[in-house]
Specification:
alpha/beta, 5 helices, Ubiquitin-like (UB roll), DNA polymerase, domain 1, 2 domains, three-stranded mixed beta sheet
């Protein structure tokens, strides 16, 4: 009987030690820093400038990862004279990008400038265009082309195509006729 009592005492002591050890592990404060999960970062929107043969030329903010087609749609879609095959509509845009939608090549309007004839219409960079190039635009003759060049030389390059309306003699009506034919690039 002494042996069984002896084993019982050993089992009780071991059980008490295990219980105290387990209680110590459960009740002690955790060590180290807790892991903090942050929400996924939200990407900042991008801003692009859409001009050329679209219904609403302007600056537009789009979500990051937007495509050229998204910018065209937010700009009111293609205008009637747009060359819809000239752009890769699936291209992903970058912040600060300029999208110029070209117009289809078409004969010049009779009486539009001094050149006459039926040469194709091309986009004219109003910051670098010569007198002859500006003269190809509808409602812009040689005299107005010179006024544009003089204004550009006195005031620096145009920032937006809408800035051409600051030139004396060019109002909203003329701008509406040429806005799909002009672009702004860098100054020479």
């Amino acid at each position: 009987m002494t042996k069984s009592w002896w084993w019982s005492a050993v089992l009780i002591v071991v059980g008490v030690l295990l219980g105290v050890g387990g209680l110590f592990l459960v009740t002690r404060p955790p060590r180290g820093e807790p892991v903090v999960l942050l929400p996924a970062p939200t990407q900042a929107p991008i801003t692009v400038y859409v001009s050329g043969a679209v219904n609403e030329t302007g600056l537009y903010s789009l979500p990051a990862g937007s495509r050229v087609n998204d910018a065209i749609q937010i700009a009111g879609g293609f205008s009637g004279e747009a060359d819809t095959q000239a752009l890769n509509l699936a291209k992903i845009l970058e912040d600060g990008e300029q999208i110029i939608v070209p117009a289809r090549s078409s004969p010049a309007e009779p009486g539009s400038g001094s050149r006459g004839g039926n040469l194709p219409v091309t986009l004219v960079d109003i910051n670098t265009a010569t007198l002859e190039q500006l003269d190809t635009l509808p409602e812009i003759g040689t005299k107005t082309a010179q006024v544009i060049i003089d204004y550009r030389n006195a005031n620096g390059p145009f920032i937006w195509i809408e800035d051409i309306m600051d030139v004396p003699g060019i109002g909203q009506g003329i701008f509406d006729k040429i806005k799909h034919l002009i672009i702004v690039g860098t100054s020479p």
